[in-house]
Design goal:
The structure holds 2 protein chains of 2 kinds. By secondary structure, chain A is an alpha+beta fold. Chain A has 3 helices and 12 strands, in the order αααββββββββββββ. In chain A, strands 1-2-5-4-3-12 form a 6-stranded antiparallel beta barrel. Chain A has a 6-stranded antiparallel β-barrel with strand order 6-7-8-11-10-9. The radius of gyration of chain A is 22 Å and the shape is globular. In chain B, helix 3 packs antiparallel against helix 4 and helix 5 packs across helix 6. Chain B starts with a helix and ends in a 16-residue tail after the last helix. Chain B has 6 helices and no strands. The chains are: A alpha+beta, B mainly alpha. Chains A and B meet through helix 1, helix 2 and strand 1 of A and helix 1, helix 3, helix 4, helix 5 and helix 6 of B.
């Protein structure tokens, strides 16, 4: 019984001493990450090899039709790129005229997803980049679709990423169309919710929600998701906005780590126009 | 020796599960393998060793996920102690009684999560999300239990009927 009480006390001390599950550091989590990471990487590579054989050589139904659709999309996007290039050049000229500071591109480090959370209660990913690659706790993680999450712990060669769908996650955000500000919080399997948007602000289903950069972690203007439902009650000060994340977390294979330390000053310098 | 092998199996299950979940559809239920292993440990290992195994498996689950350290550890220890207290009074031999123990353990998980979340201020998903995750996890664990227990029985060399084949009597 003494042994039981000793272990129970140890578990309680651990719980009490780690009040923030969103950011974890210490030798034990790093050691576990480093110990199991190579095994996860090996298994993941094997699985990807076999699924690759299936997708590339066996499962080729509808490929011709998919190819035709993709060609049409490419043509459409080429035309859009031409338009955007013109607008970008114009934007640069106008910014130079107004004397704005040019925004520097952030260094991005590509990484592979090798594992997921062991349980269904927390939403994390394991990636094959760690401290030796320049990854540190608190760095933002993106994909081509938008924001994925934030690095919560690192070891020499691996890191664990807290997804934006985890209830411990919070991202400063704004609605693209109306510039209404709020905080995007995770809701587990239910996606995300945009909180603290004043009820007088106009938000509608289909609106795109971006990171505002006010948290000093995520780059400003990166896509978080699309508004799926708005709940506005007469008696409440804030409206609650359900968000469908732009990233498909179940098909995530490659991600990008923003190799820039989160700023201590949580209020980034903004352009006067914004 | 059995204890060490048991721990190694626990580690293997953790690594396999965390990698395989990347390739299964999102609606597919993910089992609570830690709970199943702790249940097996409480049925088969002596008290001291079983307790140490429960602690280590819980800690492994904490460190191998985004959970706060101590979250699963505390639950694993509590489940182990409850199971041993029951086993001190009832001789669990058949698979039906093992199933009863599992259902009890799993039913305890929901109030435990809510209690811990309230005490330590850890955010939980909304109620419908909690209920969904809990029920699908229970269903998946129930499906995995006979296979995992049979595998453990074979590897660790226990003999008998049902999920388990031999029962040790080191009760608290």
């Amino acid at each position: 019984m003494t042994f039981f009480l000793a272990l129970l006390s140890l578990a309680l001390i651990m719980l009490q001493s780690k009040p923030d599950p969103g950011s974890r550091s210490g030798p034990l989590p790093a050691a576990v990450l480093e110990l199991f990471g190579p095994f996860q990487q090996g298994i993941e590579k094997g699985l990807r090899f076999f699924s690759g054989i299936w997708e590339r050589y066996v499962y080729l139904v509808d490929l011709a039709e998919e190819n035709r659709i993709l060609r049409e999309i490419v043509l459409e996007q080429k035309r859009e790129i031409n338009d955007l290039t013109e607008e970008r050049l114009e934007n640069r000229r106008l910014r130079a005229l107004l004397g704005f500071r040019p925004s520097l591109p952030k260094p991005l480090l590509p990484a592979q997803v090798v594992g997921k959370d062991l349980t269904g209660w927390f939403h994390t990913l394991t990636i094959d980049r760690g401290r030796q690659d320049g990854v540190e706790e608190g760095m933002a993680v993106l994909s081509v679709q938008g924001i994925v999450g934030q690095v919560m712990e690192t070891s020499g060669h691996f890191s664990r990423v807290l997804l934006i769908t985890d209830p411990n996650s919070a991202v400063a955000a704004l609605v693209q169309r109306t510039r209404a500000r709020g905080v995007v919080e995770g809701r587990g399997i239910g996606g995300c919710v945009l909180k603290y948007v004043h009820r007088s602000e106009e938000v509608a289903p289909g609106d795109r929600v971006l990171s505002s950069g006010l948290d000093g972690v995520y780059p400003r203007g990166t896509t978080l998701g699309t508004v799926s439902r708005v709940r506005r009650k007469e008696t409440e000060l804030f409206q609650e906005v359900d968000l469908h994340p732009s990233v498909d977390f179940n098909k995530l294979e490659e991600i990008l780590v923003v190799c820039e330390k989160p700023s201590q000053d949580t209020a980034p310098k903004e352009d006067p126009a914004s | 020796m059995n204890t060490l092998v048991f721990l190694l199996i626990g580690m293997t299950v953790a690594v396999l599960q965390s990698t395989l979940v990347l390739h299964i559809p999102p609606a597919f239920p993910v089992p609570d393998s830690t709970l199943l292993l702790v249940l097996f440990a409480s049925l088969s290992l002596p008290f001291g060793r079983g307790l140490a195994v429960a602690f280590l498996l819980g800690l492994l689950a904490d460190l191998h996920s985004g959970a706060p350290e101590g979250w699963n550890t505390l639950f694993a220890l509590s489940v182990f102690l409850i199971n041993r207290s029951i086993l001190a009074r009832i001789f669990v031999k058949r698979s039906r009684s093992t199933l009863g123990l599992f259902l009890l353990d799993f039913a305890l998980k929901l109030p435990y999560l809510v209690l811990l979340s309230g005490l330590f201020g850890f955010p939980l998903p909304p109620l419908n999300g909690v209920l969904y995750t809990w029920s699908v996890e229970g269903f998946a664990s129930l499906l995995l239990m006979p296979f995992l227990f049979r595998l453990l029985t074979e590897i660790l060399g226990f003999q008998g009927i049902g999920f388990l084949t031999r029962k040790s009597h080191n009760t608290p």
